[in-house]
Amino acid sequence: MAAxxxxxxxxxxxxxxxxxxxxxxxxxxxxxxVTVRLEPAQPFIFGGANAIAPFSAIKGRWHRWIDEAxxxxxxxxxxxxxxxxxxxxxxxxxxxxxxxxxxxTTEALAACFWLKLSAFLVEDAxxxxxxxxxxxxxxxxxxxxxxGVFDPETCGMPARAWPRRADMSINEFDR
Length: 175
Known about the structure:
Layout: E1 4-14, E2 28-40, H1 55-70, E3 73-77, H2 82-89, E4 97-100, H3 106-123, E5 128-138, E6 141-146
Parallel strand pairs: 1-3, 3-4
Antiparallel strand pairs: 1-2, 2-5, 5-6
């Protein structure tokens, strides 16, 4: 069976602090599109429904997470001092901060998307595996990761971190 691909558009903001001279050190936003690629765990065989699972089952929770948790979130590194501002002055908005180990780059976001979607597939017992994630940050900048360049087992993300959990989380503030 051919691989499945589906996309979702969302808006976000972030800032990158590793290079203080970068214009990305100032909070700014993007309208992005994420496209994921899934391959079935078994080959296609004609008969019955002629599909391994309905599209609604495969992408339902993923799209809900993008729409409800990712869309209009503010992506920051776990050590960003702006988190203290939110804790002190706008604690209700902490749930809208997506946190990263290091800078919230598009590369890191693509890897987190891979891990989160993989967790959804496992929990929902869907016979697919993620084989690619593409994040279009702007019309001229895109990051694409695939199995040849990303290994979820050796990527350094702790087993209980938010990207590995099949829930609506985008940070660890409630833990």
